[in-house]
Amino acid sequence: MTFPVYFHVFGRTIHPHLVMEMLAYTAGFQFYLLLRRKQIQPTVPIEQNLWIIVGAIFGALIGSKLLAWIESPSEFVQVLGTPAMLGGKTIVGGLLGGWAGVEFAKKRVDVTQSTGDLFVLPLALGICIGRVGCFLTGLDDHTYGTFTSLPWGVNFGDGPRHPTQLYEIAFIAVLGILLATRYKLAYTNGQTFRLFMAGYLLFRFGVEFLKPSYKPYVGMSAIQIASLVGAIVAVRLWKRGAQ
Amino acid sequence: MNQRRIRLPILLAFVGVLALVGCIPLPATQQFMPNGNLKPSWKIGKGKSNPVWLGHTKLDEAIAFLSKHVSGKQWDAIFMAGPNHQDEPHIRSTWQKIDDHHFSMPYNVRAWIFVWPLCASATAETDGKYLILETDDANRIVDYDVISRSEFYDKYSAKAKDMFPRPKLDLLAPLTTKPTE
Q1: What's CA B52's distance to the chain center, in Å?
Q2: Complex prediction ipTM
Q3: Which end of chain B has fewer CB atoms within 10 angstroms, the N or the C?
Q4: Is A70 on the interface with B (CB under 8 A)?
């Protein structure tokens, strides 16, 4: 297999990351709508819900870019003002920014009930699909792991490396299934979302040690610090909700 | 439900997702090259009005015309960076002879236009093609074909030979200075 693995759509060659990213957003949103229709408990009215989604999207946009720029500030300065500066984004920043955006929007439209549980499985699905795009992109995506001699190491073009994108897909799939079965899809109090965030962020904190990323902050990357802070907040909120 | 009240959040959500993706991919027609000219096959035909007139135009005339047609400013990044320049001698040097009656020239067509709204710019992604010209014993162009770059590599790259010398890129050459008198 040669990376990037391009797709051929209607006789045109197109980059895998673009295809999988769009597919991830579309599939995640359709899955969310499906779960929302099946919900028995009263849901937030559609207009307020749309504003919450807008808050999530713009929060994710700001968070994903900000963290990507803090993650590698020297690269950001080099591409400032060009389309390349919009290319970098991080899922961790997107999730944390999206979460903050939702809370901000809920305050603005006077929604007090928890809304995050319904997003857990769509988020898991979206991340899994998006990471396939990262994997197929190979070295250009900068989401690969360090070199390894383990038999499942993947050669993206410069020798076998940890396929950290595939580790993430496997982890998210297991986490999603566990949360779905444990909580029987009872989306009411935000606890499933907090557990999902805590689990995913802790995983990211750990798996980043397997990546050859820039780690200037006490031997950690900006993504690791954001993941750690986010996980602590999620666990504290979950504990408070459990009492 | 008031339909008018949900229009704005739906529009904002749509714009937000596009901004998250970063760019809007628009399929291009694949009829234009990065220099803005129509692809070479538009210039070949059976009518007298075609610059490369099948059955009449000689190979060297076709090479001269098509090399010029493909050369020039190559706008890969529209509205943003300055264009690259592919000069005519460089294009001419890419012609290859497959056998006594078949000759090839590579060129690119715009396959996708990526619009980057937050940067107010657009970039183009190209697909590589090969124009194959067929000649008769009198060296007149009698037919042509267009194939993808990968198809060319599979079928012809082993036997294709350069027709013209490639320009030398002597990057390490010392700067010449005018001798002091």
Answers
A1: 18
A2: 0.79
A3: C
A4: no
Checking if the pLDDT of B181 tops 60, the result is no
Mark yes or no for CB contact A83/B80 under 8 Å.
Answer: yes
- Residues of chain A with C-beta less than 8 angstroms from the C-beta of B13: 50, 53-54, 57
Q: Is A47 on the interface with B (CB under 8 A)?
A: yes
Q: Does A8 touch chain B (CB under 8 A)?
A: no
- A208-233 b/e with 16+ CB inside 10 Å = b? beebebebeeeebbbbbbbbeebbeb
Return all residues near B2 (Cβ < 8 A) that are at least 6 apart. Answer: A47
User: Is residue A14 less than 8 Å (CB to CB) from chain B?
Assistant: yes
pLDDT at A171: 98
Torsional sign, CA B170, B174, B177, B180? negative
Q: What b/e readout covers A102-118, taking b as 16+ CB neighbours within 10 angstroms?
A: bbebbeebebeebbbbb
CA angle, residues B12, A15, A22, in degrees to nearest 5: 30
The two three-digit tokens of residue A44, written as one number? 């937030």
Which chain B residues are closer than 8 Å to A19 by Cβ?
none
What's the half-sphere exposure (Cβ side, CA atoms, 13 Å) at B66?
Answer: 31
With an 8 Å Cβ cutoff, are B30 and A12 in contact? yes
In this complex, is the C-beta atom of A18 within 8 Å of any C-beta atom belonging to chain B?
A: yes
Q: Does A81 touch chain B (CB under 8 A)?
A: yes
The pLDDT confidence band at residue B180, using thresholds 50, 70 and 90, is very low
Q: Taking CA atoms, what residue in A is nearest to B27?
A: A12
Question: What mean pLDDT do residues B26-52 have?
Answer: 93
pLDDT value at residue B41: 95
Say whether A61 and B5 touch across the interface (CB within 8 A): no
Specify burial of residue B154 (Cβ count, 10 A radius: 0-12, 13-18, 19+).
exposed
A29-76 pLDDT, tens per residue? 999 888 888 876 667 888 898 999 999 999 999 999 999 989 888 878
Angstrom CA distances, A187 to A32, A124, A174, stand at 12, 15, 19
The pLDDT, as a whole number, for residue A41 is 66
